[in-house]
Amino acid sequence: MMPSLPVWNDVESDTHQVRLLLIDEHGQSAEELKKHFARYADKGAVWCAQQNNALQTALRVQPTVILQGLATPADAGLELISSIRAAATCRDVPIVVLSSSGEAVVKNAAFLAGANDFIVEPSDELEVISRLHYHSNSYCTRRDLRSTANKLEKAHDQLLQSEKMASMGMLAAGVAHEINNPIAFVTSNLNSLDGYCRDLFRMLDAYSTVEKRVTDTGITAINALKHDLKLGDVREDISQILDECRDGMSRVRKIVDNLKSFSRMDESEWLCADMHEELDRALNLAGNELKYKAEIVKEYADLPQVYCIPTQLNQVFLNLLVNAAHAIENRGRITLTTCLSRAPDVAGCREQDESEWVRIAVADTGSGMDDETKARIFEPFFTTKETGKGTGLGLSVSHGIVQTHNGHISVASSSGEGTTFTVWLPVNRCADVTETVQHPER
User: Fold this and answer.
1) Greatest pairwise CA separation for the chain in angstroms
2) Average pLDDT over residues 329-339
3) How far apart are CA 364 and CA 290, in angstroms?
4) Per-residue confidence band for 14, with pLDDT thresholds at 50, 70 and 90
5) Is residue 348 a contact partner of residue 359, using CB atoms and an 8 Å limit?
6) Considering the chain, what is the average pLDDT of its residues?
7) What is the pLDDT of residue 300?
8) Which residues contact 4 (CB under 8 A, 6 or more apart)?
9) I want to staple 378 with a disulfide (CB 3.0 to 4.6 A). Which of 28, 333, 399, 434 is the partner?
């Protein structure tokens, strides 16, 4: 038999509405219980159920707390608790058991079945209502936190994509220029090839005309035509033109593939990836930003692969390269250095058999930054660029990506002496599934 519970208002005000499901194993009239709680409807909603329809009622009303009376023997009540726990939509709803038996074996069985709390009758009515409030509010808080976490994750994904789009917008003119160059010489070469082919057809027509009546005069005419058309040079040029066309279209395809890979929002699979390939891919994307500003120096060491989301790290490298280019006023140098490091706080590189981290440094000979700027460099929306030339999100997003990979990013810089961004990434998770990737000096 359920105790006579006090009003909800006897307990401090809730931040969430209580949705209580009473499960009465004795068959007590649901109408009687509803009347008992009718006057408290402004503070919460109450539903009543018996053992045989409790699960269906729970799935329908989605309570925030369940108060279940447990009879002796308790087999049916324990089975009901397990059934509620097995239902996806009620799996986390707190269940408070009310029983006349305080035996340890009964309590243990209830908790093993999935109960969150156990109250022995007779009990203080205020204590019962307080526990119901506590469990209901705790459940609602956890539910709201999960919802907030999901919203934050979606917002973070949108922020990440926004930064990608900002980077792509900044690179768009350069990419268009890069694509136009190979397309231009492919088009030009195809026009030349068309002219050469026309000449070849003329030559064939001439052969066809004199084929059945070849005379010394005809041979002389054909040889003269060969000389005029420079047929030997045409044959050599055709081969070279076709090679250039294939190379040009390969460059276009590579640029487009890099853009597609970089802009793909749903590419979030963790893979073992080659960091040198990701660096080179970023260099290709930022090619037009870099080639007029800096000489690119690669100092690549032999590295194992890194367990990561490749497209995200590619975005980090692209941000660092573009920032390096913008820091150089006239003409300078950008140096990419990779090696194995013992730990993120160790500046130098160690032998491979002692190493646990990949260390990637992007150093420029630009204007550098003062201590105040350096202290804020990873803050969201902080930028030293002119209005309209930077979102202030690039380094902040990069910092978040590196942290997601359990890595570390740091900056070393002084005014007028250039800047070095260093990224450390753990590699131990790939140690068992990949072999060291050898890279010659590039």
Assistant:
1) 129
2) 92
3) 11
4) very low
5) no
6) 76
7) 95
8) 36, 125
9) 399
